[in-house]
Write a structure and sequence with these properties.
By secondary structure, the protein is α+β, with helices and mostly antiparallel strands. 28% of the residues lie in helices and 27% in strands. β55 (1311-1317) and β56 (1322-1325) form a beta hairpin. Residues 256-277 are annotated as: Disordered.
Length: 1341
């Protein structure tokens, strides 16, 4: 809102100050030009009196004048012509925008908005002051008429007195000519003042004194003044010039030095003879043209790059006389000293106090006498008229003209007005109000509307200016009526505008913002775009002063003001300012349409002013992702305009602009330090080169730390990562290798309703060679190392250190997301920063004509903005939103190094439980210069993995010996496998193949094995001491067989091992599992097969029961013995046995026994220690014939290993053998299992004591499995518990029945017999004479 350092009263005093004309002779002007000034300009800075002065009113009351200011103008000065006046007003608004200070802001807080709005509008102040200064008075008022004329002649004139006489005559002729011409005078008898100007350095002082004496004698001592100036000569040397520049220059704020001012002077002199009525008509046309921009004028704002020095310097005074125009560099007052300044001050004070104020006193008294006498006469003549009821009707009066007052110069109303204007100019507001009000009372609207409107205007102003105005009610209705009369009836918008300017200041001072808004809006019609824009903006600021603030109304009227500024044409920067001020308000939700309108206008106008960044930013906001109201056609139109503007403003740009669409989802950005590896050996490459590979699992870091735990060279080396996402810890910079591919994956989203076409898509990067390693000396650094490269340029560059792959095109459908994968390679070490992507943007439309309007689209960029994980470790981080550092896009590039490719062929995808398969692992060194010195492998399940040479193609190694020694010791090996060592390095551009054996787990389901290959080279250095290749394989494990056993002691030195092998496949099939061999590995036991010869094939749903007997082995040297039992049906291979000790069987067995005791795991230890060997271990070999994809049968081998727990019988204490019992039954039974087999069993009891016992018999079911079908013990039928009384020496037989459901080898030992002790309520168990009872149930063929 318009604010100033001074009060409203001081503003009004400066707006309506006494006018004085200066008429100089040629010789006087010549003297003044030594100071680059005219005489009127010379005294202009001294026109405000620093002290108070006073005069007497007609009632002899002392009127004190405070801060009195006179407006001094040259006699020949006239209002500027129409074109120049319009340019001055436009310049005052335009130039004020360059001088705006940003620190003068106010904060407005509400529930929805937090705004910072400029508290001042200096452009409005400048326009208002300029408007009041160049506007001229009308015929109905005398405020802008000259009260006095100052005649100036120098002592250098040949006849000064004659010159004065001619000047007086010139002024009189001009005032008396008919019709009247400009300048206009306050009254016929104006005040004349005479100045004799004396040049001290050139004139004769005696002549000056003599002439001044004659002057006082002729015109009176109070009306004359001798003014001495130019006390020093103009500087000729540099020191004189510097001294002149150090002198105060009070004229710099007032002097007009421009070609336009010279043009104005020439025009005013050429049109000097124009009539007074014509000048008023021209003035009206001037304001009309200022309010209607029909004339096209070149304006500095038309070109954004126009410098301020090219603009014309104009006076733009504020309330305090300050100027906002350009300051001239010309030195003023070079011949004046401080004493000369004081003399001018004295002259002005004497002119006012001794000449002008006495003249004012005299004329006020004269006006008062005229008013008093005429009031008496009027009262006498009005009494008979009122008594007889006479008077003319309004119909008899002529219709008045709106361009004249219809009042003569000696009419009562004119006298009232003249007296009131004189009192008002000299701060006698009470007398002025009385006369204005009297004139208003005597006039009517229809008689003289212009005069009546002027009286109403001044009544309001004088009412406010009186000292008691605070207690009075401001007559705002008077000003409203005056504005309406000026606008509608009189059609004089210049005076209506003046009314509004003064009245709104008064209303704002009284905090009547509502009334001020109404007056601003009255004069914001379409007849004046510049004035309407300024007034609408002021009305908008008034809404902010409401309680509470009307923020949305403020925004609405600011938008309208911006629109009017655009229509004004030459002040487009102000239109941009208005739109920018409300952008934050309409940026809230539910204002999408208004927000789009503002951004669209800002984009177009910023582009026309060559403000490229602002234009692009505004257009980008049109395609914001949260805009859901725009339809497809509207977005196409926006894009058309965007393309047009874009091509206009980016021709001279050196960097690519940022495009609004598509939207990059920054959380999906992935950086992979590996390229696409194609199989070279026909297998599968490691899947760590895929973006879907998960490197965030802790298993990878654990595996890498296991390898490097005892490696001194790798100490201090961080864990190697190739894939960086938003889930990885990105505090450290990724480490890439020169000449290797870096891939970027991201997702982009199309938020528009039309499909987008991206072409020429590539990564936007920045690269510098400095800082990649520790410098040995600063002097060794070349300028090339500190040079920074980037492809963020509008033109293509050559000899770049980074090579980018270009994606030809990518279509993104409306409201859809698309994945983009890009890659690049660096050719030298340094620091690489991924900035974003650059591409050519276009849209796909169905209308071919629309498509051809922009066939090439626009080239721009989208920057990446990544942030780390949110921190939540302390209270400060929990209370605030703080994110960790994310350096995934700032890559450190090290010199070229070896690169290892891993390829598997073939890698099995599905296996049976316990199956053993092999695959080939190809180690490929792709580097052509450096070799790889060591490659090590570690897996997440080292007990299932072993390696061998390429020549070891067979899993099974046969021997003719059924019993042999384990020919090598079993040690607990490290889980780290060395594939390449220093003695046999992997040379450059070479391949090495090894065989990897995989042993499937005994648990069905999914089995995942993680492989970590760590390789080293002599060229590696910090921070890259080693590199890794990761691979994760998923295997589907299906059921094969179940291998169960339980050792039972039959006496000292003997064990029985019943073994049950089940086909556990879950789905019916025709596959047959063939059991090949059972091997016993032990130091103390030898095994023997007790089972008869049976078929070794086990189909779906079948099982195989075998019985083995273990005898104690005398082993003096404590060697590990192996005993192989052939279980196949091929009689030709009964003497061929598989040697379990040979690799890879030996390694798999060692892994098996190493994992029996988990406390001695070697997963994290490299120390080789002996493996604790169990008492007995059984290794079962089996095979399955299965058809492959080609229909050919292949044999798959499997391996199951168990270590049963051995309970060696110890010497037992003496037990109760009073009661003895045994079971009598058939040991071998053949039966057709069409029904259940019931085997009769006889239980014989014998009491050896001479006493009676009560026995408890329990037939329990103690099995290895809960399923009776799979049980190794029989199932008893009948009564399972009974009590028996056995007399002394009695023999007793009981008949029992055992039930069997399928063939097998069963135990009858699940019988419990005990003596019941009635006294102690306990039972004493009875042991049988025979330790075990077994029965062989066979199928009857």
């Amino acid at each position: 809102m318009a604010q100033t350092k001074k009060s409203v009263s001081e503003f009004i005093q400066d707006a309506f100050c006494p006018m004085v004309s200066v008429l100089c002779s040629y010789d006087a002007e010549t003297i003044c030009r030594k100071n680059n000034l005219t005489f009127a300009e010379l005294i202009q800075p001294f026109c405000r009196l620093p002290s108070e002065v006073g005069y007497r009113d007609p009632s002899n009351n002392l009127i004190v004048l405070k801060n009195l200011r006179l407006e001094i103008k040259d006699f020949n000065s006239l209002p500027p012509q129409n074109t120049l006046a319009k340019k001055i007003l436009n310049d005052s608004v335009s130039n004020a925008l360059n001088n705006v200070t940003t620190n003068n802001e106010r904060e407005i807080h509400s529930e929805q908005y937090q705004l910072h709005i400029k508290n001042t509008t200096p452009w409005f102040d400048a326009w208002r002051d300029c408007f009041l200064r160049i506007s001229y008075g009308g015929d109905h008022e005398y405020l802008k008429n000259y009260l006095a004329c100052v005649m100036v002649v120098s002592t250098s004139h040949l006849d000064p007195m004659d010159a004065f006489s001619k000047l007086v005559q010139q002024q009189s002729l001009q005032q008396q000519q008919s019709p009247a011409k400009l300048p206009k005078w306050f009254m016929p008898n104006i005040y004349k003042y005479f100045i004799l100007l004396h040049d001290v350095t050139e004139g004769e002082e005696s002549k000056a004194v003599s002439v001044f004496g004659d002057l006082k004698q002729q015109y009176g001592a109070g009306n004359c003044h001798l003014l001495q100036i130019n006390s020093k000569r103009a500087g000729q040397t540099s020191s004189d010039i510097n001294e002149a520049m150090n002198m105060p220059d009070p004229w710099r704020l007032y002097v007009k030095q421009s070609s336009s001012s010279n043009q104005k002077q020439s025009q005013t002199l050429s049109n000097k003879d124009s009539s007074l009525s014509d000048s008023l008509s021209n003035l009206t046309d001037l304001i009309d043209q200022e309010l209607n921009l029909t004339t096209s004028i070149s304006h500095p704002l038309g070109s954004f790059n126009t410098s301020i020095s090219d603009l014309p310097a104009t006076i733009d005074e504020g309330y305090d006389g300050s100027s906002t125009g350009n300051i001239s560099t010309v030195i003023h007052g070079a011949c004046l000293t401080l004493s000369d300044h004081d003399r001018i001050h004295v002259f002005m004070h004497e002119f006012v106090t001794k000449g002008l104020l006495p003249w004012v006193e005299t004329n006020l008294k004269t006006f008062n006498e005229q008013i008093t006498s005429r009031r008496g006469i009027k009262k006498i003549f009005s009494m008979p008229k009122n008594f007889f009821g006479g008077g003319s009707t309004s119909a008899s009066k002529n219709q008045p003209s709106t361009t004249s007052t219809n009042l003569s110069n000696d009419s009562m109303e004119v006298v009232f007005r003249r007296a009131a204007d004189l009192a008002f100019l000299f701060q006698h507001y009470e007398l002025a109000y009385t006369n204005y009000h009297a004139a208003k009372r005597d006039l009517s609207r229809d008689q003289a509307p212009t005069f009546y409107a002027g009286v109403l205007e001044m009544c309001c102003i004088t009412n406010f200016m009186q000292e008691s105005a605070t207690s009075r009610t401001y007559p705002a209705q008077y000003m409203d009526d005056a504005i309406e009369l000026y606008t509608v009836t009189c059609r004089l918008p210049i005076f209506a505008t003046r009314c509004a300017l003064v009245s709104t200041e008064i209303l704002k001072a009284r905090e009547s913002y509502d009334a001020a808004v109404q007056q601003f809006l009255k004069l914001s019609q379409e007849d004046s775009d510049l004035r309407g824009a300024l007034f609408l903006e002021q009305a908008a600021h008034c809404f902010l002063n409401y309680r509470p603030s009307y923020i949305r109304k403020y925004a609405f009227y600011m938008v309208i003001a911006g629109h009017r500024f655009l229509k004004a044409g030459q002040v487009r920067l102000h239109a941009l300012r208005c739109y920018n001020d409300v952008l934050e308000i309409y940026g809230k939700p539910n204002w999408s349409l208004a927000f789009d309108h503002i951004n669209f206008t800002l984009g177009k106008q910023s582009a026309s002013l060559n403000q490229a960044n602002d234009a692009i930013r505004s257009f980008n906001a049109l395609f914001a992702p949260n805009n859901r109201i725009q339809n497809a056609q509207q977005q196409i139109n926006f894009f058309k305009e965007y393309l047009t503007v874009f091509n206009q403003i980016t021709n001279s740009e050196t960097i690519l602009p940022e495009l609004p669409v598509p939207l990059v989802e920054n959380t999906t950005i992935k950086v992979l330090l590996a390229g696409h590896h194609k199989p070279q050996m026909g297998g599968h490459v490691s899947n760590c080169n895929d973006f879907d590979f998960d490197e965030t699992r802790e298993v990878w870091s654990d595996l890498e730390r296991t390898i490097t735990a005892h490696d001194r060279r790798a100490s201090g080396t961080r864990t190697q990562l190739n894939l960086f996402t938003n889930r990885t810890h990105n505090q450290q910079h990724p480490i890439a290798v020169a000449n290797e591919t870096i891939r970027i994956e991201l997702y982009v989203r199309n938020t528009l309703q039309v499909p987008l076409l991206l072409s020429e898509v590539q990564i936007l990067w920045k690269f510098s060679s400095n800082g990649w390693k520790r410098k040995t000396s600063v002097s060794a650094e070349s300028p090339e190392e500190w040079k920074e490269y980037t492809n963020d340029t509008a033109t293509k560059q050559t000899d770049q250190p980074v090579e980018c792959d270009i994606l030809s095109d990518c279509i993104i459908f409306p409201n859809d997301t698309s994945k983009i994968e890009l890659s690049l390679r660096t050719h030298r070490p340094g620091n690489l920063t991924i900035l974003g992507i650059c591409y050519r943007l276009n849209i796909l439309v169905q209308n071919i004509s629309d498509q051809t309007t922009w066939p090439y689209g626009i080239m721009g960029k989208t920057l990446f903005h990544v942030k780390g994980v949110r921190l939540n470790s302390n209270r400060r981080e929990r209370l605030n939103t703080i994110y960790a550092v994310d350096n995934r896009l700032e890559i450190q590039v090290v010199p070229e190094a070896p690169l290892l490719h891993i390829e598997f062929s073939p890698m099995p995808a599905a296996m049976f439980c316990g199956e053993v398969q092999s695959c080939l692992v190809h180690l490929i060194n792709t580097n052509t210069m450096h070799s790889i010195t060591r490659v090590r492998l570690i897996t997440s399940q080292p007990n299932l993995i072993t390696v061998s040479s390429l020549d070891d193609t067979s899993l099974l190694t046969y021997t003719n010996e059924s019993q042999s020694l384990w020919n090598h010791t079993l040690h607990q090996h490290s889980s780290v496998l060395t594939l390449v060592n220093h003695h046999h390095p992997l040379l450059a551009n070479s391949t090495r193949t090894i065989r990897l054996w995989l042993h499937a787990s005994n648990l069905a389901g999914e089995m995942n094995i993680d492989f970590l290959f760590l390789y080293e080279s002599d060229v590696f250095q910090q921070p890259l001491r080693h590199r890794t290749v990761k691979h994760s394989s998923l295997f589907i494990i299906t059921h094969s067989i179940g291998f169960h056993t339980q050792s039972e002691s039959t006496g000292l030195g003997e064990l029985t091992l019943p073994v049950q092998i089940d086909n556990q496949m879950t789905t019916p099939n025709s596959l047959t599992v063939n059991v090949q061999q059972l091997s016993c590995i032990s130091k103390h036991w030898n095994i023997k097969n007790l089972s008869p010869k049976t078929p070794n094939g086990i189909r779906y749903g079948e099982n195989l029961s075998l019985l083995f007997k273990c005898t104690h082995l005398e082993n003096d040297n404590d060697s590990l013995q192996m005993k192989h039992i052939y279980l196949g049906n091929d009689e030709t291979k009964t003497d061929q046995y598989v040697d379990i000790s040979k690799n890879p069987m030996g390694d798999l067995f060692r892994h098996f026994i190493s994992n029996l005791d988990y406390t001695h795991s070697a997963h994290r230890h490299k120390i080789i220690a002996p493996v604790p060997i169990p008492s007995i271990s059984l290794v079962l070999l089996w095979q399955i014939a299965i058809a492959n994809q080609l229909g050919q049968y292949e044999i798959r081998h499997g391996l199951h290993m168990i270590s049963p727990k051995i309970d060696i019988p110890q010497t037992e204490p003496e037990t109760n053998d009073t009661i003895q019992y045994e079971l009598i039954y058939s040991s071998v039974v053949e039966h057709k299992f069409t029904k259940v087999l019931n085997l009769p069993v006889e239980l014989k009891l014998f009491n050896r004591a001479n006493k009676k016992f009560r026995l408890q018999l329990q037939l329990t079911r103690a099995s290895l499995d809960s399923d009776p079908v799979l049980s190794s013990c029989c199932l008893w039928s009948g009564m399972t518990e009974q009590f028996i009384n056995l007399s002394a020496y009695e023999h007793l037989s009981l008949n029992l029945r055992a039930c069997f459901f399928k063939p097998g080898f069963y135990s009858l030992g699940n019988i419990s017999l005990a003596i019941v002790d009635k006294i102690n309520s306990t039972t004493v168990p009875i042991k049988s004479n025979i330790h075990n009872y077994f029965v062989d149930i066979r199928t009857l063929v």
